């Protein structure tokens, strides 16, 4: 605006001089022209600096977008790894356990019982195939509600009892109040706990307890099996289920505790917050 005013004054002075047939410009006109030229040069310099800052901002934005894409890819790979373990891998473990039980009954010539387990294994194989197709089609995007959670857990517990012949006491009525955002994580956590008990614990009984304490949902899965040294967890290889549980707890803002000792059984205790600082999950 200042430059424009000086330019206007300069033009007005020039026009007056032309009208007065004045050949030589006055000192005032020269000063106005110099001020105009200086202002114009400063404006060009400012525009050049602005373009430089804009290009730098574009480069930073491109680098940030690339970094976000890399993080998104890593998170998606971790999510898919958890889902593959918590669905297909666990179902295949269950089928393997059922086939082992069938083999034991056949050795003892318990053909009727072996036939029942074989039919259950076939039914489970079909369900696993259907679940795999659903996972591929929808990338496990379906929402799980509290009532669906309880139904799914009761099915898993019944299947666990039938397949392993291990007694399982479940006190999970409180899960009817589970926030929807936690339902999928709760289902996978309890399923993983049962799978570990079936594969490693050699337990006679498993106990599942769920309760709300203040702003936390606490899920405890304990068994009376052989246990292990808790310090050995850091060196165990291939235990992707426990790694997935830790990742799920971290995603929810909670944490996983594992207590065990040789001959003392194992306790998995999952603390999940039911609220965040911004409100309910």
UniProtKB/TrEMBL annotation:
The chain crosses the membrane at residues 24-45. InterPro entries: HATPase_C_sf, HATPase_dom, His_kinase_dom, Sensor_HK_TwoCompSys, Sig_transdc_His_kin_sub3_dim/P. Pfam families: HATPase_c, HisKA_3. SMART domains: HATPase_c (SM00387). Residues 108-142 form a coiled coil. Keywords: Coiled coil, Kinase, Membrane, Transferase, Transmembrane, Transmembrane helix, Two-component regulatory system. This is Histidine kinase domain-containing protein. Residues 186-276 form the Histidine kinase domain. It comes from the Bacteria. It comes from Ktedonobacter robiniae.
